[in-house]
Amino acid sequence: MKLAARLLPCLLLPGCISMAPDYERPEAPVPEMWPDTTEVVIDGNSALQDWRTFIVDPRLQRLIELGLEHNRDLRIATQNLRRTQALYGIQRSEQFPNIDVQANGINQKLPEALNGTETISRQYNVDLGILSYELDFWGRVNSLENQALYAYLASEQGRRNTQIILISQIASAYFTLAADKALLALAEETLRSQRASLALTQQSFDNGVVSGLDVAQAEVTVATARVDVADYSNRVAADINALAVLVGEQIDDTLLPQADGPGELGGLAPIQVGLPSLLLTQRPDIQQAEFELIAANASIGAARAAYFPTISLTATAGVLSSDLDDLFSGDAGTWNFTPSISLPIFHWGEIRSGVEVAKADQQIALAQYEQSIQIAFQEVADALAGRQFLDQQFDAQQMLVAATGETFRLSELRFRQGVDNFFTVLDSQRSYYSAQQVLIAVNLNQQANLINLFRALGGGWTGSPSSEFSPESSPETASE
Predict the structure, then answer these.
(1) Name one GO cellular component term (predicted).
(2) C-alpha neighbours within 13 Å on the C-beta side of residue 471
(3) Rounded to the nearest 5 degrees, what angle is found at the Cα of 119, between the Cα atoms of 117 and 122?
(4) Which of 343, 359, 388 is the last residue of a domain?
(5) Beta sheet of 99-110, edge-to-edge order
(6) Model confidence over 322-375: pLDDT tens digits?
(7) 3 located within any domain
(8) CA 68, 72, 78, 84: dihedral to nearest 10 degrees?
């Protein structure tokens, strides 16, 4: 009676015994603070949930909206999520018995040579019942359900991570295009200036003021500027094509960035950085790795359950008759109840090896989870360090542009007054042009750094994930 009292709850509640190890979130293998946080703005409530709070340029916002709708990588991630959700539904259904209806008819003729008389027999039956339902005493089916559940949750986080990467890629491509358009505008402006200088130099040569060397040097600068214009024109065309692939469709010209001047790239809001522990809840790739770890943990339970007996039930009830007209008469009822048990005896190490495989997979998932945390910490720390030095470099480069611009203006004025030769003008002009190019590149690096920090902090998803919950909560609660 005591044994029956213990087994009855297991019959009513499958999976009441679990062979899976208890899951505890591993300690994060990173420091509690960012390195050298004296220049970092810390906000313990930073979430970066909606990418629109970070990306404020309306053209870029529209491009990202189009990308979230049409990008093929995101579509693939969405379908993978749909697939794992369906697989979880399949596995979850194994917790409950399948009820099937079977109907068949047998018509058989026996020849006279067999028993001296030719006979014809008929049999019709309709059965409703449960076929081979496994009683989950040892939690094998429940562990497989948990594994499928957390695989689905990991896939959901994978879709979120793909979305964040897509937003970052579109933003990066957008600012790369803006920078190349600025470089193209600068090259075109320089070409016009060089052509004007060439005309002036040619006029001075005709008047015997300058030598033919000065004219040749002016022609070199014009040719160099033409090369730059062609190069940046090619870059702009390639950038537009790359942006169109990310967005997933052709882009209207009104959504393309304008050709801003050096140091004028913008459209991103400042970012406040939370503590490293927030990465565990903000970065979807870390959550994906943790769900995969929990799924591997559940696989150990399923593998261990193979040591114990498998108990199955088959039960049917129906009607049976030799005459189709009498099939549903009152005395045609029939039933069948067939319990079965299978106990492993000699499997030559197969079950033990299966458990070892599950344990190895769990340790691999653990290492991958810890590695994802370390990589996330490094990415944020690198972005924070880069932000400080890029700001210093940008300020210094602005001063250099102002200084070389003034040098070019004065050298050109002195040349026209006959004080300096044309070589001084060309040298100062090259320095001014190069300084402006570097300023655009540094400005682009600043935007790229902000985008990398945004992605590294796990920002960019909108709304609350449908299955977001603490990994320590029960699978039944999580799936409701």
Answers:
(1) cell outer membrane
(2) 24
(3) 165
(4) 343
(5) 99-110, 119-135, 310-321, 333-342
(6) 666 666 666 667 777 778 888 888 787 888 888 899 889 889 999 999 999 989
(7) no
(8) -160
